[in-house]
Specification:
The protein is α/β, with parallel strands linked by helices and 137 residues long. The protein is built from six helices and four strands. It folds into two domains: 33 residues; 69 residues, no CATH class. The two termini are 20 Å apart. This is CopG family transcriptional regulator. InterPro entries: Arc_rbn_hlx_hlx (IPR013321), RHH_8 (IPR041088), Ribbon_hlx_hlx (IPR010985).
Length: 137
């Protein structure tokens, strides 16, 4: 069973928090004040994109080597019921966003998902996450 894959849109994002030293933060503020960036967030996003571009080939090779689905993978109740009916289990590996539908029960998730590796974000109910806790890598 293949998940539905979608390209990530720029407005889809996950909030992260970082701690920076005062000197690094001061340098960022200086660049913002001098007009190189519109704000701290603009600087940090640009720095992250530059590093991702710098390591793009290594990341691509790793995605292939680890057999990761790239983008957004959604697992509906209907799709997981079909997996259960076939007697199969899924080994889910996603780089991006994996979503498990809100109407998926913890029992259905445990019966159909053998392992779950998500590099990015996992959106699922707290009950499903708890049910899969020993299978999340």
């Amino acid at each position: 069973m293949a998940a539905e894959l979608h390209e990530l849109k720029p407005k889809e994002s996950e909030k992260i928090t970082i701690n920076l030293g005062f000197v690094d933060l001061g340098h960022i503020d200086l660049l913002v004040r001098d007009g190189f960036y519109t704000n701290r967030t603009d600087f940090i996003r640009t720095a992250i994109r530059n590093q991702l571009e710098r390591h793009a080939e290594a990341a691509r090779n790793s995605v292939v080597r680890k057999q990761l689905d790239l983008g957004i993978s959604h697992y509906s109740r209907e799709a997981l019921e079909a997996v259960r009916a076939s007697g199969d289990t899924l080994d889910i590996r996603v780089l991006g966003l994996a979503t498990i539908a809100a109407d998926v029960s913890p029992e259905l998730a445990r019966a159909t998902i053998g392992s779950l590796t998500v590099l990015g974000a996992l959106h699922a109910s707290a009950a499903v996450k708890a049910a899969l806790a020993d299978r999340i890598k």
